[in-house]
Amino acid sequence: VGLGNIWRFPYETGNHGGAAFILIYLGCIFLLGLPIMIAEFLIGRRSRANTARAYQTLAPGTHWRWVGRMGVLAGFLILSYYAVVAGWTLEYILEAATNGFAGKNSGEFISSFQQFSSSPWRPVVWLVAFLLITHFIIVKGVEKGIEKFSRVLMPALLILTILLSIFVVTRPGAGAGVAYYLKPDFSKLSMMTVLAALGQLFFSMSLAMGIMITYGSYLRKQDHIEQSVRQIEVFDTLVAFLAGLMIVPAVFVYSGGDESALGKGPSLMFVTLPKVFAEMKIGSLIGAGFFILVLFAALTSSVSVMEAIVSGLDDRYHWGRKKATVICYIYAVALGICCSLGFGKFTIFGFSILDFLDFVSNSLLMPVVGMLTCIMVGFVLKPQLIVNEIELNGPFKMKKFYSAMVKWIAPPCLLAILISSILDTLGIVKL
Question: What is the model's pTM?
Answer without folding.
Answer: 0.89
